[in-house]
Write a structure and sequence with these properties.
With about 230 residues, chain A is an alpha/beta fold. In chain A, about 20% of the residues lie in helices and about 25% in strands. In chain A, helix 4 (about 85-90) links the parallel strand 4 and strand 5. Chain B has a 9-stranded mixed β-sheet with strand order 4-3-2-1-5-8-10-11-12, with helices on both faces. In chain B, strand 2 and strand 3 form a beta hairpin. The two termini of chain B are about 20 Å apart. Classes of the chains: A alpha/beta (about 230), B alpha/beta (about 210). Chains in contact: A-B, A-C, A-D, B-D, C-D.
Chain lengths: ~230, ~210, ~210, ~230
C-alpha cells in the first residue's frame, strides 16, 4: 500500500543510510528513476552498493552518484557508457561485481521472490562463474547464483494508482518490475497518477510499493538517437 | 577482396529461417535486419524487454521509452510486446531464441567465444552476451577476420576471458564463412570464401585449425 | 460457552492492522473478512492470482473467470490486480504478506502446524498452505480446540505430516487464544478464554504445554 | 510464432504420444484448457504424466483423463475435488507427486526459464522435502526444487493475436502463463482472436505459442457458486 509524497526528497526521508544497498530499475538511461536518483545524490548518503544493469552516463542517472563518490560498489552487467566509472574502477577506487544481464535480472527477481539461490548455465566456463558452486543436472553443468535483496528499491513507472499499483511503458519497463520486488522498501516515481488501472494489465502490484511520488518534467534523455529517412514520395 | 560489413551482414541473414525468433547483438549484427529476404518472416528480440522490434523511427518520432539493447531508438510493429528483463532472459535462457548473432574479439577452434573484456583495459561488461550464448539454439558470430594490427581473431585457444565455452556454430568474417555441424568436438569447416581470397592466404591469417 | 465460528473469526480480525496485506485460508478463515473493523484498510490476497479480493458477487453476476483460492466466485475492487501463480507465490515466498490466517488439524507447542494430510485417508494436498507458512510474516491459526471425537488438536508434538515446522504465531480456538512473541523457542501463552471456560478445563482439553 | 488450427484435434495432431508429460494451466476449473483436454481425451493417448495444480472434477477438465485411465502420474498441489482421483491413488493405480502450490508454480516457471533448480524455504521440515538436497543460506535452511519441462503445454487464454501473443482474463490467468513457457511445444486455446493486443499488456509473448485454436461455446464451469444478498432498498 503506497503512501504518496510531495517530492523525491520527502519520499526518501528516513530511508537512506551510509553503506546501504540500493537496487534501481532502468536500462541505459531508459526507465531510470531519475528523480529518485537525483534525491539520493542530494542527500549525500555514501558508501552505497548499487545494483543496476548500467551505471548511467557521467552527468545523468547513476553517473552523478559515481561522480560524487557516493558509490562504493556497483553490481552491473554493462558499464560501457561511463568514463568516470572506468577511471574509478581502473584506479581501484570503486568495487565492481559483474553479472551477466540475465543472471542479474534473475538474481533480482529471485531476491524478491524469496529464492536465495538458483542454477543457471549462463557464465559456466567463464571467469564470472569462478569460485561459485557448480552442479550437474541431467548431464549438464550449471552454476549457483544468489538472489539479491536490497535495503531500498527505486523504480520509475509510467502510471500508478493511489494504492501503488504500477504500469510501465514500452522498453522503459526493463528491470523496474523486478527491482520493485527486491527492496526491503520500494519507492516509485510515476509520470501520472490515475484513478484506476486495468486490473489485468498491472505490472507491479501495490503490495510492493511503499512510497510513491508523481514526478514532473522528466528529462528522459536519449542515449543513441537513431532515425531512418522517409522514402521520398 | 574482403567482404564489406554489409556483405557480411547479408551473408549472416542467410542463417535466418522463416518463423525464427532472433536476437541481434550490437554492432555489425544489427545490420543483419536490413538484409532479411522477402518472404522470410523473422521476429527480432531485444533483450532489454521487447519482442517484435521494428526499424529506427523517422526523425522527430523518437521515443525515449522505446530503445533496443544498443540503446538506440527503435519502433514497434503490430506483433510487438514488451516484458521485464527477468522475463526477457527467461525466454533467452529457456532456449526460445532460434538464433543469436554476436560480435567477437576471439573465436577459438573449439567454439569458445570471447567478446566482453580485455583485462586491465576494457571493462564494459558482458551485458546479455553470456546469457545469449548459453541459451540461444544457434550462435552465429560476425567479426573481422583479423584485428587492426593483423592479429588472429579465429584462434587455437582464446586468450581473453570467455563469454562462453563451446558455443559458436557459425563464424562469418570479412574473408570467409566457417561452420560446424554440432558442438560435440567437430572441427569448423570452411564453407565459403570472399572472392579473390586463397586458401593459403586464409590459413596464414588464421590461428585456428579448420577443415576445408 | 465456546465461541461460535463467527466469534472466532471476529477475534482473528483483531490481528489485522491498517494497511495489511493478508491471505485468508479456506474455511473459517474466509469468514474473517466479514469482521474487519471500520477504518482498518486491509487488502486481501488470493493465491490463485489476485490482490484486492472483493466480496461474493450478487446472484446473477458470478464470473467463472473470477474465483478465490477456495474456488468460490468473488468480485474485484478498485485496487484489484491479477497475476500469474508464479508471481502470486513470489509475493508470498518473498515475505510480502503481513499475515496469513489458516485452519489446522494439529498445532504443536513448538509452533509446528499440520493441516494438509492424513496418511492413508485424506489426500487433498497442501495447496498453498506450505508456501504461506514459509513466507507470510505472521501466521494465525483458526481451529476448533478439539476434534469431533474430543481428541486434542493443540498437542505436544504433531503426529500428522507437517505443513510447516515452527510457524504458528497465534492460535485461536473456540475456547481460547494462545500467542507467542517469537519463533525462538518461547512457549505459547494463554491470552484470552471464552466466557465460562476455566483454566482447568482448558488444560484438560489441551495436549500442549502453555503458560497462563 | 503461432499457426492457427481449425479445432483442438487438429492442433494436437502429431504432438501426442504414450508416456509423455503434459503441463496444463488452470486453477480448479478456472482457466483450464477445456477444449484441448477434451481432445487429449478423445485421442486415447495414455500413460500420461500430467503437471497441473488440480486434477479437475470427475466429469470435467483433467478428471475425464483420470476416469479414462489415461493418466499414469499427476504432479499437483491439491486434488481434493476429485473422488475418482482419490480412489485410484488409494488403490495404487495412480502415481502422485505433491508439490506445494508455490513450489509447483515456480518449478514450472523455472523449467520454462532454463533454470534446472532453485532453493526455497517452502516445505522444509515436511515430508515433501524428504530426500531432497538441503542447503543453508545466511543461516536459514532451504530445499532444492527442480524445474519442470514438459513435452507439451496446454493453456487457455482470453484473447490472442495471429502471432500467438496471449492475454488472460482475471483469475483465469493463474498457472497458464507459467505453463505456456514450460512446454517443448505449447498449444493455446483462446476465446477470441483479435487484430492487435496492447503491447504493454501481453501476458504471454508469441515466442512461446506454437499452435493456436479459437474455441467456441466454452463450458467454463463454476465449482463453488457463492453469492451475497442485495441489501434491500
Amino acid at each position: 500500500m503506497a503512501r504518496i509524497y510531495d517530492d523525491a526528497a520527502a519520499a526518501l526521508d528516513g530511508l537512506l543510510f551510509d553503506g546501504m544497498t540500493i537496487v534501481a530499475g532502468g536500462f541505459g538511461l531508459c526507465g531510470i528513476p531519475e528523480k529518485l536518483i537525483a534525491a539520493v545524490h542530494a542527500s549525500g548518503v555514501k558508501d552505497l552498493t548499487v545494483v543496476s544493469n548500467n551505471a548511467g552516463v557521467d552527468d545523468f542517472g547513476l553517473g552523478v552518484l559515481l561522480r560524487s563518490r557516493q558509490v562504493k560498489k556497483m553490481i552491473s552487467s554493462y558499464v560501457g557508457e561511463n568514463k568516470e566509472f572506468e577511471r574509478q574502477f581502473l584506479s581501484g577506487e570503486l568495487e565492481l561485481e559483474f553479472a551477466p544481464q540475465g543472471t542479474l535480472a534473475e538474481r533480482i527477481r529471485a531476491g524478491g521472490a524469496g529464492i536465495p539461490g538458483f542454477y543457471t548455465k549462463t557464465g559456466v566456463g567463464t571467469t564470472l562463474a569462478e569460485g561459485k558452486e557448480h552442479k550437474d543436472f541431467d548431464g549438464e553443468t550449471y552454476v549457483l547464483e544468489r538472489g539479491i535483496v536490497a535495503d531500498l528499491a527505486l523504480v520509475h513507472a509510467w502510471r500508478g494508482d493511489r494504492f501503488g499499483n504500477l504500469v510501465y511503458r514500452k522498453t522503459a519497463r526493463n528491470f523496474n518490475p523486478n527491482a520493485a520486488t527486491a527492496g526491503k522498501v520500494t519507492v516509485a516515481e510515476v509520470e501520472e497518477l490515475v484513478d484506476r488501472l486495468d486490473p489485468d494489465s498491472v505490472h507491479t502490484p501495490s503490495v510492493y510499493v511503499r512510497r510513491l511520488i508523481v514526478g514532473h518534467d522528466f528529462e528522459k534523455r536519449i542515449e543513441q538517437r537513431t532515425v531512418r529517412q522517409r522514402e521520398s514520395a | 577482396m574482403p567482404w564489406s560489413r554489409d556483405e557480411m551482414a547479408a551473408r549472416a541473414a542467410h542463417e535466418l529461417k522463416d518463423g525464427f525468433y532472433v536476437n541481434l547483438g550490437i554492432g555489425i549484427p544489427t545490420l543483419v535486419s536490413n538484409h532479411i529476404a522477402p518472404g522470410i518472416d523473422v521476429t527480432l528480440q531485444s533483450e532489454n524487454g521487447m519482442l517484435g522490434m521494428g526499424p529506427f523511427p523517422y526523425a522527430g518520432e523518437e521515443d525515449p521509452d522505446l530503445i533496443n539493447a544498443g540503446k538506440q531508438t527503435v519502433t514497434e510493429l503490430d506483433r510487438t510486446c514488451y516484458f521485464s528483463s527477468a522475463d526477457s532472459f527467461a525466454m533467452i535462457r529457456g532456449g526460445k531464441m532460434d538464433l543469436s548473432i554476436l560480435g567477437a574479439m576471439e573465436v577459438a577452434e573449439n567454439g569458445d567465444l570471447a567478446n566482453w573484456m580485455i583485462p586491465g583495459k576494457m571493462i564494459k561488461g558482458p551485458g546479455g552476451a553470456m546469457d545469449l550464448v548459453a541459451g540461444a539454439k544457434r550462435i552465429v558470430v560476425l567479426a573481422d577476420h583479423n584485428d587492426k594490427k593483423g592479429g588472429h581473431k579465429f584462434v587455437k585457444a582464446c586468450t581473453l576471458p570467455l563469454t562462453g565455452a563451446n558455443v559458436v556454430d557459425v563464424l562469418i568474417t570479412d574473408l570467409a564463412v566457417f561452420e560446424r555441424p554440432d558442438r560435440s568436438g567437430s572441427p569448423f569447416r570452411l564453407v565459403e570464401m570472399a572472392a579473390g581470397v586463397t586458401l593459403d592466404e586464409l590459413r596464414a591469417r588464421t590461428g585456428a585449425a579448420f577443415t576445408a
